[in-house]
Amino acid sequence: MQRLILVLMAWLAVSAGQAAAQGAAPPPPSLPAALALVRSTLIAVDQANLTDDYSVLRMLGTPAFVQSNSADFLSQAFRPWRQPGRDFGFVAVAEPRLQSAPAIDERGILRLVGRVPTPNFDLAFDLAYQFVEGRWRVAGILIRPERPQVDAFSLDSLGEVAPPAPRTAEAAPADTPPLPRRHGEASLLARAPGGAIPEDASAAADGAPINAPSRRAEAIPPLPPPRP
């Protein structure tokens, strides 16, 4: 059955034993490196949307992401983004704006949240990465078109980036909140063996059990009007 799904989200949480087996995560990337990582991921998504071939995007993911999402399912999940006016190839030249400096949580997940301006809308993103086999791999993707805004971190507005404040395992990150859930969004949750879904991700499934991937589909909200 065809599903209208605006966003895909596949969060990965690993146990301490799994993290040790893969090796310790490196320090957070610099701001320019983080922006390059965001840009390369979004370009991969846009090219997959243009060609309806999600095999390359899928293989950029962590093992759990690859296992949870077939190329066919990714095609269904991103189908609304193949509609006219929803391409965002402009990210190749636009500078992503992050909500906060790059940081790695206690689970070894690098989370990059922000937006990229395009001619017709701002592309809001919430991307998660895990360091696997010597490089950052995609662990989660959430994208949404939004009306333009200007308040965010960028290379032009930042000099020295202060290190992130210490956080405890009990407290949810305060400096990088998840993109707010809105009517019309849907999500897929993928759980790695022995892992657990973060609280903010499990909440996206509207209380559905996390023992198996959870999917839901709703109407797609209209794009914001083009910029004058």
Supply the key terms.
about 230 residues, alpha+beta, four-stranded antiparallel β-sheet, globular, disordered N terminus, DUF4864 domain-containing protein, signal
Overview of this structure, please?
The protein is an alpha+beta fold. It has a single domain (16-23, 30-157, 175-203), classed as Nuclear Transport Factor 2, Chain: A (Roll). Helix content is 22%, strand content 15%. The protein contains six helices and four strands. It has a four-stranded antiparallel beta sheet, covered by helices on one side. β2 and β3 (122-132) form a beta hairpin. The longest helix has 21 residues, at 31-51. The chain starts with 15 loop residues before the first helix and ends in a 25-residue tail after the last helix.
Radius of gyration: 17 Å
Counting DSSP E segments of at least 2 residues, the number of strands comes to 4
Please count the helical segments.
6
- Number of separate structural domains: 1
Q: What is the level-2 CATH architecture name?
A: Roll
| Distance between the amino and carboxyl termini | 39 Å
Strand order of the largest sheet: 1-2-3-4
List segments where confidence is low: pLDDT < 50 over at least 5 consecutive residues. 1-21, 151-177, 180-226
What is the CATH first-level class name?
Answer: Alpha Beta
Helix content: 10-25%
Pattern of helices and strands: HHHHHEEEEH
Average pLDDT works out at 69
Q: What's the overall geometry? A: globular
Strand content: 5-15%
CATH fold-level label: Nuclear Transport Factor 2, Chain: A
Instruction: Give the helix/strand class.
Output: alpha+beta
Query: Which sheet architecture does the biggest sheet show?
Result: 4 strands, antiparallel
